[in-house]
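#struct-help
A.M.: can someone run this one for me? Single chain, 146 residues.
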Amino acid sequence: MKTLASLLIITIFSILPIKVFAAADKLTGTWALDVNNLNNRLITTLEIKFTADKANSCLGGSWRKIEVISSTPEKNSFYPDSSMILNQELSYKLDNDVLTIGRNNICDAYKHLTGKLKEYQAIGKYIGFGWERKELGTFKLNRTSI
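D.P.: on it. Structure tokens below:
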């Protein structure tokens, strides 16, 4: 029994790093992020890179920084004060295949994009929450280069 338990533990820990590496590997390269409102009108397009740098967050969890390379329009309504690129940090976390991108450093005024990451694409919901939860639209994310 002791040998079986030891073998099981060794097997689990030898598989674990491969899964973690595979998840991190999915987020390499440059990505195009389109955010739409509830009327399916484009709010903004961002070109981003996922980094391994730890992000500031009022929420729990392991949040990492997103580098925004460019945005169209430069000043947009993705966030209410139209200064997302200059003053607001975007961050992300990946739980299994569920990717969440958000503004988490302004407490009680969170904006999240959440969807399932499949291959090199994610499609999901754009929501706001804090004092209340509100559905704001949808998003689509595609990797554009390695």
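A.M.: thanks! The chain has one domain: 28-145.
D.P.: also worth noting: Strands lie at 30-37, 42-54, 64-72, 90-95, 98-103, 109-118, 121-130, 134-145.
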